[in-house]
Amino acid sequence: MTGCRIRVIIPAFNEARSIGLVIADIPEGLVEEVVVVNNASTDETERNAVAAGATVLRETRRGYGQACMAGIEYVEARGTDIVVFLDGDYSDHPHEMAELVRPILTDEADLVIGSRFLGNRERGAMLPQAVLGNRLACALMSRLWSASYTDLGPFRAIRLDSLRALEMVDRTYGWTVEMQIKALKRRLRVTEVPVSYRRRVGVSKITGTVTGTTKAAYKILSTIFRQAISDRRD
After folding, report:
1. Which residues pair with 55 in a beta bridge?
2. Over the stretch 201-218, which tens digit does the pLDDT of each residue have?
3. How far apart are CA 216 and CA 78, in angstroms?
4. Class of domain 6-233
């Protein structure tokens, strides 16, 4: 894919300390635009993102998937070929983005998942509950859909036309797993590439609290079983 237009969507909730670092590490010249979706932050996330050169959207309805949806609506209207999703907490390594999108640029994949389990993961970067949750979700997808996923990593790239075909609906924690299951069901070409992962800046809003961990686990598992039930009905 020559002349490919790439845009980055970063959902962000109270990431004032890290958002500038994330944007600064995105390879220069690789992407058309960095879009930060300020998901009802109460700190200086928006101001710091603008200062770092990003376009900032405001999405007051809370939810990771909700923020992603707002970003997708924006990039769809601006001529985009590939969408990269990236967290705003600086746990991912944005400078690895060229390797993430390469399988799409060479027409070998439609969706690329950055796998933290295949790459270099800093000790303590993923809490035990996050590791267990990822492994359980991937095991279930393997059992139900013969998937070969190793991770639900948020650092991922997808062709915009493929993303449209998935008809995503989740607005919260089930976003990543819904995308991966639907990619299998729609027979997209999916691959994983190793990515590095480090301790995030600040405390995770999900795995950093008991409530967040419980909600995320419930949402991910319910999304998997809902998709499985849908398959049986079909």
Report:
1. 35
2. 876 655 555 566 778 888
3. 32
4. alpha beta
Residue 49 in tokens: 């993102």
Nearest Cα neighbor of 188 from 103, 118, 127 is 103
Question: Is residue 221 classed as helix, strand or coil in its secondary structure?
Answer: helix
Q: Which of 39, 41, 8, 47 is nearest to 25 (CA)?
A: 8
Indicate the DSSP class of residue 94. Answer: G
Q: How far is CA 115 from CA 8, 147, 203, in A?
A: 18, 14, 21
Which pLDDT tens digit goes with each residue over 154-198?
Answer: 999 999 999 999 999 999 989 999 999 999 999 999 999 999 999
Q: What is the mean pLDDT of residues 68-76?
A: 98
Single-letter amino acid, residue 121: R
The reported pTM is 0.93
Tell me the pLDDT of the chain averaged across its residues.
93
Secondary structure E strands in the chain:
6-12, 33-38, 55-58, 82-85, 111-115, 156-159, 190-194
Q: Where are the domains of the chain?
A: 6-233
Long-range contacts of 101-109 (CB under 8 A, 24+ apart): 101/6, 101/30, 101/157, 102/193, 103/191, 103/193, 104/1, 104/4, 104/157, 104/158, 104/159, 105/1, 105/4, 107/1, 108/189, 108/191, 109/189, 109/190, 109/191
